[in-house]
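ok so for the tutorial part 2 we go from a plain amino acid sequence to predicted structure tokens. step 1 is just haveing the sequence, like this:
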Amino acid sequence: MTALDLSALSARQVRDGIARGDFSAREAADAAYARIDALDGEVHAFLQLMPELAYAAADRVDAARAAGDELPPLAGVPAGIKDNMNLLGTRTTCSSRMLENYESVYDCTAVRRMLDAGALPIGKLNMDEFAFGSSTENSAFGPTRNPWDLERVPGGSSGGSAAAVAAGMVSVSLGSDTGGSIRQPAALTGTVGMKPTYGRVSRYGVIAFGSSLDQIGPFTKNVDDSALLLEAIAGEDPRDATSATEAVEAYTAAVEGGVRGLRVGLATDILEVEGCAAEVKQSVLDAAEVFASLGAEVGEVALPSARHGLSAYYIIGPAEASSNLARFDGIRYGHRADDAEDVLDLYMRSRAEGFGPETIRRIMLGTYALSAGYYDAYYGQAQKARTRIIEDFRSAFERFDVVLTPTTPEPAFRFGEKSDPFTMYLNDFYTIPVNLAGNCAMSVPSGLCSSTGMPMGLQIIGDYFAETTVFRAAAAYEAALGFDTTPPLVRALAR
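step 2 — the prediction. this is what the tokens look like for a chain of 495 residues:
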């Protein structure tokens, strides 16, 4: 195995090590693939490896250094890409049989910006099919396992993105977050997951789930790396009409800001929700005390409409998914069934063969909610609930700079433990309201659960385009807590 250990280095340390000549970008790529060879047979984070692209990128970085050129911010940093993001010359499957053989013909803007910043495209990462899930058990190509405990899930839908960073197979990765799909797996794997404000990062080139909810963001080992990657991928994109025009701030400078005088709101009303584990609840209360000890002004805040977020989301999300996935019909895109009797039979058989059970469930839910006679009763009411949630957050941010909640109600659960959809959906109780409102939020590790030894996550929620404030709070908390993000699987490999 190569002497370079990516799990011991942050993305910034990798980039700076290459800039100093401590090692080359090629050696960084070697280290990533060596770690994948050693661990991914058990973890199954990757669906496709891209060594030709990765080594070509590494050679460009090494050539730039040899020429004395200034290196970009992510030069030589091994990176993974969730498999719902297009990259020219690669397969983009969304972990679905429907797109098993689809090859991208263009680049996702966020991916291209990450690569233009010097990152090495190591491979595409496993996910719940079409991002429908909270455990990565719904992948058509098999589940991803949590590096902290191979019998437990890594969360979802971006489980592969989280597991690859947690296991040190890549330094950073991109995920997408529609109802918690970055923050929830980050919490379950002891990584840092950032969901930017809606529109902060272009959605161009990501295969859409819920167009008013989707947002791309980073998985990293620490808060500083998250700021580094978000700075690279954020900003207006003329190809995405929903991308924001606000200037990208210096997120990396924010991590040194500290929290003295910062107004921190503790969302106490939703800590009492049934199903929130006692240790998870206590970890958030402890976090509030940490912030107070660092000089922040801590108080209580109520988010009364957040309790309706789950119900509203599972109308709005499936409704948008039903519309977005209509294009996968076996004619324009996707799997095509053999020997169909007519066009209707072709549609029905292609979609039945190409889509998995959870995808079919959500398409049916969304189609029903949008159907004549039910639109006002379901979709219309869900949008009204969404408005109330937005108002709750607006009120909260008049008094506070950030709001604290758990990221998930409990640590990672075992495979097969959540056998019915409702108990699975409850894992996103705390993250969904943020997507409905469009705010930014980050999950940072908040310690280990004593009964399971699994990581827990603290969610730090910010106002619209208040990413710098979230980075300030998260970096200060991270430094005070001193959490070791190295999973047992990685420690065993080091021995």
